[in-house]
Amino acid sequence: TCPNPLAAVLKKELGGVPFVEQVRQCTNSFLMDREDVRQSMTVINNVIKEVKGGRNYLIFPEGTRSPDGSLLRFKSGMSLIVQQTKADVLPCNITYMNGKKFRSHVIVNVGEVIPFETLGFSDAQSPRELKGATRMIRAAVENCAGEKPEMTDCGDFESAVRAAAAAAESGDVVLMSPASASFDQFKNFMVRGECFKKIIKEL
Q1: Which of 30, 52, 53, 98 could form a disulfide with 104 if both were Cys (CB 3.0 to 4.6 A apart)?
Q2: Which residue positions in the chain have pLDDT lower than 50?
Q3: Do 137 and 61 touch, CB atoms closer than 8 A?
Q4: b vs e for 83-93, b when ≥16 Cβ sit within 10 Å of the residue's Cβ?
Q5: Is 28 in a helix, a strand, or coil?
Q6: What's the Rg (C-alpha) of the chain?
Q7: For the chain, what percentages of helix, strand and coil (3-state, to nearest 5) are there?
Q8: What is the rounded end-to-end Cα distance, in angstroms, of the chain?
């Protein structure tokens, strides 16, 4: 178990969505009503208290998904949390591999940590500082998007192994890392591992 799991601020529309709701409850994450300013500020204040207590939060500063996957304008609530907690920021960017589809493969790109001291905050705590910090964080998120790696959908396990072997060059390492259950094609993960070794020996 994780003694201090990562929590998140999610839009209220995700409340009740299977799996997402279970994760939200397990992590004690917050749902935010973007149409209710008072409720939104209550969430922000609660997050500030928890971050000051040492908890890490995942924030989606756009507030929603963009229709085409491009980066939208960031809300200032995230910068307000940073300003009040003096927390560092770790920018991340989600890249859709096959266009913005429900079952699209995605890549999570992680940037360099932004130290609080570099965000231009002062004791004045002015709205201008919030806007400036928001722009800096948005630029960092935009810049951490890496190149899209080449991905090949092979359909079944053996085809994937043979395609990887054909693409590999001398000195390369081919790692079997399915990141998913084995039940669709194998009895269990051990059978899948034995199949992997068998295919490799036949190459």
Answers
A1: 98
A2: none
A3: yes
A4: bbbebebebbb
A5: coil
A6: 21
A7: 40, 10, 50
A8: 41
The two three-digit tokens of residue 192, written as one number: 């899948």
- What is the pLDDT, as a whole number, of residue 63? 85
Angle at alpha carbon of residue 179, lines to 176 and 181, rounded to 5°: 105
Q: Are 70 and 19 in contact (CB under 8 A)?
A: no
Tens-place pLDDT, residues 11-23: 999 988 998 899 9
**Are 138 and 71 a contacting pair, CB within 8 Å?**
yes
- CB 20, CB 10: distance < 8 Å: yes
- What CA–CA distance (Å, rounded) separates 139 from 133? 10
pTM above 0.90, yes or no: no
Task: Kindly state the tokens that stand for 123.
Answer: 């004791």
114's tokens: 């932004």
